[in-house]
Amino acid sequence: MRFDVLTLFPGIFEGYLSESLLKDAIERGALEVCLHNMRDWANDKHNTMDDRPFGGGPGMVLKVDRIVPCVEEVQTYAERPGRLVMLTPQGRPLTQRVVEELAQEERILLLCGRYEGFDQRVVEILQPDEISIGDYVLNGGEVAAAVVIDSVMRLIPGVLGDENSAVVDSFSSGNRLLEEDQYTRPREYRGLTVPEILLSGDHGAIERWRSSNRREKTLARRPDLLDGEETKIDEDEKKKKKKKRPKKTEEPEAVAESENVAEAKPSETPEAVDATETNVDV
Ligand code: 6GU
Question: CATH number, domain at 62?
Answer without folding.
Answer: 3.40.1280.10
